[in-house]
From TrEMBL:
One Pfam family named in its UniProt record: Dimerisation
GO biological process: methylation
Protein's name according to its UniProt entry: Dimerisation domain-containing protein
Keywords in alphabetical order: Methyltransferase, S-adenosyl-L-methionine, Transferase
Domain named O-methyltransferase C-terminal: residues: 164-281
GO MF annotation terms: O-methyltransferase activity; protein dimerization activity
UniProt key word Methyltransferase: yes
O-methyltransferase dimerisation domain sequence ranges: 16-87
Domain of life: Bacteria
Gene3D superfamilies: Vaccinia Virus protein VP39, Winged helix-like DNA-binding domain superfamily/Winged helix DNA-binding domain
């Protein structure tokens, strides 16, 4: 028998996923997960939080039904991964970062934005700093750095440099500077530079004082599309920033090559967008809000690769058995002009 509801289920599934996301974000805002390291009843949790007991019980039950909590009779607790990433006392607490990302990428008023079009000024200038709060993104994103990015970078650098130490390292658009901080801490003879936009630079400057690394890491503030980024770097970290050079891609790529010391390495993290802008879907949807505002800065993987090749960069290939890519999100390049 023909059953059209089977074909249409995909649309109802989308509505369900949206409800799950709404539920999860509400629980983050209420900080529910920070109270559920151990088993607790709704009544006990209501006493601790001051929330309405009846509706709190409904919320906890729904979270358990969605697999976000464990349930035992009338008691609830976090899952293992919930304790790791959603409890405020965890060193890799992601709640604040997740809420910020949701606000940053939210598809609010899409209908009106489609009808009326982008902001003409944003479209003309095409500068991410007009749309994104990079300072807040860097601050909230510090715990994210320790969920694999730092570990992957350290392992790869150890493989590339062996017993040597990178003498001078640039973290271009480094945000909080966590990646460089961990690298410099691992290599006592290394020195580093964080290059950031003036609206962000005060964050790593403050953190460097707290970390006791102000004597080994300096700050350069400016626009990397136009300003000098320094030179003689054994390693340049360029994580998630090359898209913001879409209108200056060849200029920035040349500048990166000129800034590297002979045999130096570039660590580049991009979004691996395919040529028809269909994959990865989470990236296309994640950037949609800013593109509706007027930005046009998402570069395809092939476009980036072609620009690097034009300026003498060649990819550094690791063999699969080296295990370097367990957490590594980007790729390493060397600039070799000898062919």
């Amino acid at each position: 028998m023909y059953q059209p509801q089977h074909k249409s289920k995909v649309y109802y599934d989308l509505l369900h996923k949206n409800r799950e996301a709404q539920l999860f974000l509400a629980a983050l805002r209420l900080e529910v997960f920070s109270y559920l390291e151990d088993w607790s009843s709704p009544a006990e949790l209501a006493l601790r939080t001051g929330f309405n007991g009846r509706n709190l019980a409904l919320l906890l039950n729904a979270l358990a039904a969605a697999g976000l909590l464990e349930k035992r009779q009338n008691d609830y607790r976090n899952t293992g991964v919930g304790n790791e990433f959603l409890h405020k006392n965890s060193p890799v607490y992601l709640g604040e970062s997740l809420l910020f990302r949701e606000r940053m990428m939210a598809l609010d008023n899409v209908e009106e934005r489609v009808r009326s079009g982008p902001d003409a000024g944003i479209a003309a200038r095409n500068q991410g700093v007009e749309v994104y709060n990079f300072h807040e993104a860097a601050r909230c994103g510090i715990p994210e750095m320790y969920t694999g990015r730092v570990q992957g970078l350290l392992k790869a650098v150890q493989k590339l440099f062996g017993e040597e130490q990178p003498r001078k390292v640039l973290d271009l658009g480094g945000g909080s500077g966590v990646m460089l901080k961990e690298l410099i801490s691992h290599y006592p003879n290394s020195r580093g530079v964080i290059f950031e936009h003036p609206s962000v630079a005060d964050l790593p400057r403050q953190l460097l004082r707290e970390w006791g690394l102000a004597d080994r890491i300096s700050i350069l503030a400016g626009d990397f599309n136009n300003d000098d980024i320094g030179k003689d770097y054994d390693l340049i970290i360029a994580s998630g920033i090359i898209d913001f050079a879409k209108d200056h891609l060849d200029i920035l790529t040349a500048r990166l090559g000129e800034a590297l010391a002979p045999e130096g390495y570039l660590y580049l993290v991009s979004h691996n967008v395919n040529e028809d802008y269909q994959e990865p879907a989470e990236c296309i949807l994640g950037w949609l809000s800013s593109h509706l505002d007027g930005l046009d800065i998402l570069l395809t993987k092939d476009t980036i690769a072609a620009a690097l090749a034009r300026h003498g960069f060649k990819p550094v290939l690791f063999s699969p058995d080296e295990g370097v890519f367990t957490f590594l999100q980007g790729e390493f390049y060397q600039r070799r002009l000898d062919g």
